[in-house]
Structures are given as structure tokens and as C-alpha cells.
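User: Let's play a game. I give you a shape written as C-alpha cells, and you guess the letters that built it. Ready? Here's round one.
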């Protein structure tokens, strides 16, 4: 366990004060910090930041399930002000990612992602994008072959025209965990316990 100034302070309080002083201290600072399941302290602001990173990583995957799902998660995050509400966003995101991709949702997602490439892409790349987009009708659920074809094309474009934001998108990395984000110079897996 990493020793932080806050842990040292808590240890000093335990050793040199009575239980009433410690209780008052914890009641006062409890609204600012929580002990994570991994033994560290996380502020409410930090938990919100991690939830926003999860949303950034997964928003295109959610959009490809249907734009209404994208709006639901986006609004839930915008309106979340407590850890319990942020946990609700986490759970909504987790449940939404289990839904199938839809053709209409994927077309919308492709349009949004294309915005990162359109100024640099060649005419041939644009034509191929339009062809792939138009192959998707508005009603049917996508096959794994459709999804892989789209994913492969987007990864090819990303290799030619790098974007840090798109690079971290879970829709392009199906074998990676949806709840893994880059945070404080390391990868971190966010779980329900981080919100409790």
C-alpha cells in the first residue's frame, strides 16, 4: 500500500487522539474523500473524471448500438452529481455495451468518426467510406463480418491519420476491456467498487 500524507495523518490521529476526535475528522473529510476498494483515497471529482474517461472510451461503441442509447448515457452523465448517480452511469454504460450494433447506429457512428479523417483523406478513401456507409441499411442488426469490415477500415484510416482520441475508442479495440482507461500515466480498470 502506498503511504500518502493523508494515511500518515490518519495514523497520527488514531495514535494521539481519542475516538471522538477521529470520528469527527472522518465525518468532516468523508464528504471530500472515499477509500477505494484498492486501499487508496479518491475524491468525488476524481471518480467523476474516471467516469468521463470511460464515456470517452466507449461513446462510439454506444452510438453504434443506437443514437438513443448514446443520448441516454450522455444525459445520465451530464445529470450525475453524486457517486451513486455516477455508479448508475457506469452500470448504464456496461448494460448498453451488451446490446447489438445496429446498422442505423453504425451509420451515425461512421459519420461522426469520419469527421476526424475527412480533411486529410484522399478522394479514393472518401469514396470507399461512402461505399461502406451506404452498404448499411437502416433496419437490420449488423453481422460480425460487417462489424469487422468497418472496424478494419477505420483502423487503416487511423494508421494513416492518427488521432489520440479515436485511438482510445473501444469500438476499434474489441479485445480490450471496455472499462480500462489511461489514467495518471497508467492503465486502470474501473469497477463498481470504485464508486462505493
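Assistant: Ready! My guess for every position:
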Amino acid at each position: 500500500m502506498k503511504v500518502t500524507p493523508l494515511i500518515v495523518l490518519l495514523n497520527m490521529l488514531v495514535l494521539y487522539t481519542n475516538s471522538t476526535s477521529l470520528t469527527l475528522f472522518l465525518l468532516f473529510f468523508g464528504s471530500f474523500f472515499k477509500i477505494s476498494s484498492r486501499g487508496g483515497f479518491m475524491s468525488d471529482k476524481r471518480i467523476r473524471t474516471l467516469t468521463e474517461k470511460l464515456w470517452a472510451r466507449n461513446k462510439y461503441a454506444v452510438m453504434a448500438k443506437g443514437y438513443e442509447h448514446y443520448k441516454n448515457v450522455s444525459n445520465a452523465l451530464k445529470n450525475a452529481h453524486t457517486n451513486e448517480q455516477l455508479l448508475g452511469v457506469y452500470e448504464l454504460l456496461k448494460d448498453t455495451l451488451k446490446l447489438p450494433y445496429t446498422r442505423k447506429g453504425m451509420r451515425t457512428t461512421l459519420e461522426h468518426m469520419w469527421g476526424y479523417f475527412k480533411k486529410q483523406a484522399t478522394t479514393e478513401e472518401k469514396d470507399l467510406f461512402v461505399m461502406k456507409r451506404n452498404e448499411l441499411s437502416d433496419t437490420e442488426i449488423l453481422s460480425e463480418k460487417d462489424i469487422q469490415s468497418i472496424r478494419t477500415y477505420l483502423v487503416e484510416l487511423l494508421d494513416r491519420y492518427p488521432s489520440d482520441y479515436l485511438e482510445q475508442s473501444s469500438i476499434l479495440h474489441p479485445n480490450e476491456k471496455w472499462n480500462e482507461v489511461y489514467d495518471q500515466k497508467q492503465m486502470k480498470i474501473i469497477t463498481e467498487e470504485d464508486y462505493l
